[in-house]
Design a protein that fits this description.
4-stranded antiparallel sheet, disordered N terminus, globular, 7 helices, alpha+beta
Length: about 400
């Protein structure tokens, strides 16, 4: 079901809009009088006389929150920002940075979204949450939810900013697996959507052998197909994956008993699947060290990984690596930020897109950002979410705030 473009309900800082309007007004007045300011052409008349194509250019370079706010000012502006021509123009603007949506109750779609550009938390809601068991993937302004309560075969895709959403067709045969992971990618030119699900099943009475199956949905055919299968020895598929440069990467987990694995031995691996020719490489790629809470992310076509350094019971730090021919460390969380999380076990969330990575403990709404452009760490503004009891958990994911992204 399609829903109309809606504005985020919150108080926004219009300083940038006013500043931009002042500059534009001065330029227009100068052009109207060959460089001399015009005193007999009031601003109100000037703005009313501007053609729609010029308004499109003016509005397209504003932050997405201000665009949505502008859409509530008058019918003309709302019509402009809802037009296909404006959305196509906006697609070429790389201005906004990835937001982070944080929530604390799976049964409630309401939460808060952090905008690193304005450094504000906004009240934010998702179109729906039907179940307490779902996985999330995001790419190019779209977010995909996979409902695991029905065998993992029900998926929804939506734009968090416009609330436009739809349910993907179900596969011909219902999936029944022990572990699932889902990833999403959108072709930059054709806008074709591809979703990849990797599901793992344990062999009967044999914990060391697991079947790994790759399922692929393509919007052009609007259907699912099984593209690859393999049997993993000593490893199983997990719940973390990402698509980067046409390759689907899936984290695998060692099936060896934890007590039998030394501190220097990684319990995680990586399998790859190339979308272009359905080539699956099940040879587990080595990790840089013993890690926990591993998370893969695509940041401007760079495959990055965040992980806790240490054994399963406690971590000694958090690092960020990039995969080239092998994993290369690009950053490590400074001790002053690591200590700022307080009591820190192996359970923390991380998510990244574009040039920003978010990290927070599941037990706290305190959010830490790593800016890859400036190679700097900083805390977000204090999150208004409140922890009401000791066992309450917080989780979330990041997404690109794009108006033009559609399903």
């Amino acid at each position: 079901m399609k829903q109309p473009l809606s504005a985020i309900q919150n108080d926004y800082d219009w300083a940038l809009v006013e500043s931009f309007s002042h500059v534009t007004s001065s330029m227009a007045a100068g052009l109207a009088t060959e460089g001399q300011p015009s005193d007999d052409f009031p601003d109100e008349e000037l703005w009313a006389a501007l053609p729609d194509d010029l308004w499109e250019r003016i509005l397209s370079v504003l932050p997405v929150t201000n665009i949505l706010r502008a859409g509530t000012v008058c019918k003309r502006w709302n019509s402009i920002i809802s037009s296909k021509r404006f959305l196509n123009l906006r697609a070429g603007v790389d201005f906004d940075r990835a937001w982070y949506f944080m929530y604390k109750d799976y049964r409630n779609a309401a939460g808060l979204a952090y905008d690193p550009l304005s450094r504000k938390w906004h009240s934010f809601g998702l179109p729906y949450v039907d179940t307490s068991s779902w996985f999330v993937a995001s790419a190019n302004g779209l977010v995909c939810f996979m409902d695991n309560s029905n065998g993992g075969s029900i998926l929804y895709v939506f734009n968090p900013m416009t609330k436009i959403h739809r349910k993907l067709p179900e596969p011909a045969e219902k999936w029944n697996s022990d572990y699932y992971t889902v990833s999403l990618t959108v072709h930059k030119e054709t806008k074709a959507l591809t979703a990849v699900v990797a599901r793992s099943n344990q062999m009967p009475d044999d914990y060391s052998h697991w079947n790994l199956t790759i399922e692929v949905y393509e919007s052009e055919s609007n259907k699912w197909r099984t593209t690859a299968k393999t049997l993993l020895h000593g490893w199983r598929g997990g719940e973390n994956s990402v698509i980067c440069n046409g390759i689907f990467y899936c984290v695998t987990y060692s099936t060896a008993m934890v007590g039998g694995v030394s501190e220097d031995t990684s319990r995680h691996g990586l399998v790859t699947y190339r979308l272009s020719d359905c080539a699956l490489n099940a040879s587990s790629m080595a990790m840089p060290c013993s890690l926990t809470c591993v998370k893969l992310m695509n940041c401007k076509d760079r495959l990055l990984m965040v992980g806790g350094i240490g054994k399963s019971d406690i971590i000694k730090g958090i690092g960020i690596w990039e995969l080239d021919t092998e994993w290369r460390e690009i950053a490590k969380m400074p001790n002053k930020y690591f200590r700022g999380f307080g009591e820190f076990d192996d359970v923390f969330a991380s998510s990244g897109s574009g040039d920003i990575i978010y990290i927070h403990s599941f037990g706290s709404p305190q959010l830490l950002l790593f800016d890859m452009l400036q190679r700097s760490w900083r805390w977000s503004q204090k999150c208004p979410l409140v922890k009401k009891h000791p066992l309450q958990l917080f989780t979330g994911f990041c997404f690109e705030p794009r108006l033009e992204a559609c399903d």
